[in-house]
Structure formats: structure tokens, C-alpha cells
Amino acid sequence: MSDLRDLYQEMILDHGKNPRNFGKLDDANHQAQGHNPLCGDVLTVFVKTEAGRINEVTFDGNGCAISMASASMMGEALKGMPLDQALEVFETFHGLVTGENEGDVTPEKLGKLVVFSGVREFPVRVKCATLAWHTLRAALEEKKSDEPVTTE
Predict the structure, then answer these.
(1) pLDDT at 152 over 70
(2) Over 60: is that where the pLDDT of 133 sits?
(3) What ranges in 27-148 are assigned the alpha helix state H?
(4) Cα torsion angle, 46, 140, 109, 129, sign
(5) Other C-beta atoms within 10 Å of 26: how many?
(6) How many domains is the chain built from?
(7) Is residue 39 a contact partner of residue 20, using CB atoms and an 8 Å limit?
(8) What percentage of residues in the chain have a pLDDT greater than 70?
(9) What's the DSSP call for residue 106?
(10) Is the pLDDT confidence value at 23 over 70?
(11) Confidence of residue 111 (pLDDT cuts 50, 70, 90)
(12) Other CB atoms within 10 Å distance of the CB of residue 143
């Protein structure tokens, strides 16, 4: 089990230091800003959708390793996915990191995102792991607000 935990930690550190899908997406048709006041994470999520599918997800901003890794891996996981399925992945991921549905989550449902399962042991870090996801949902739901999405 220690080897698996070490692998998960390495993957989170890699995505945190070298995030994929990082940068502004100029032709995005959805975007939202997110802020985690506890950790200081600030992200903007950009999404390009077409015909009910996510074509591209990128993010810009800065944050802790968990926040950056979560945003990075979110983009990889959701690219090409139908919108309704992406929102289901959000719910499953959120349940995984909060511990609400940990027994129901399998690698088949979340793929590499299961590396965040250990986050639930650290409640403050749950907010870091879910910031990009809450921001994504706000972008897709086209929440109009001058205030960024927060984890509070």
C-alpha cells in the first residue's frame, strides 16, 4: 500500500510542478474564476464546448501543488467528454475527496483522478482539490457574478 501511496504522491507533485492544460484559452466559450481563501489559490478555468461536448479545458492562475495538480488532471480527464458526463465526474470526484462515496469510486469511474483519494484525510486540502472543479461547474452553468467561486 505504501508503494501505491508513493506513486499517487509523485503523480500529484508532477502535475503540481508541471501542470498540463495551463494557460488562457483564447477561444473559450465558458470561463469562471475561483478562489480558495484558506490556501490563497486563485484560478480561472476556460472551457471550449461544442455540440454538447468539452473540446478543451485549460486554467490559469496559481496555487498549491494539490490545487494545480487537480486542475491539470481535470483538463486531461474531461477533454472530449459530453457535458452531462463531465458533471457526473465532478460529483464522483467531489464524493471521493470528501469521503461521501469512497466505496463507490473505482478507477474505471475516475481513472487517474483516484490519486486524490488521500486528500479526504486532510479536510483543509479538500478545498484545494475541489477548487478547479467548482470553478469548472460555475463556468459550464454560466454563473454570472463579479465575485469568484470560492470553496467556502
Answers:
(1) no
(2) yes
(3) 65-78, 83-98, 107-110, 123-140
(4) positive
(5) 8
(6) 1
(7) no
(8) 86
(9) -
(10) yes
(11) confident
(12) 12
Give the integer Cα–Cα distance in Å for 81 and 49: 10
Q: Which three cell numbers stand for residue 39?
A: 490556501
* Of the listed ranges 111-120, 121-130, 133-142, the one predicted with least confidence: 111-120
Length of the chain: 152
Contact yes or no for 33/149 (Cβ under 8 A): yes
Can you give the residue range of the structural domain that contains 48? Answer: 2-150
| Dihedral sign (CA 134, 24, 62, 107) | positive
CATH number of 79's domain: 3.90.1010.10
Going by pLDDT thresholds of 50, 70 and 90, the confidence category of residue 13 is confident
Q: What are 79's three cell numbers?
A: 477533454
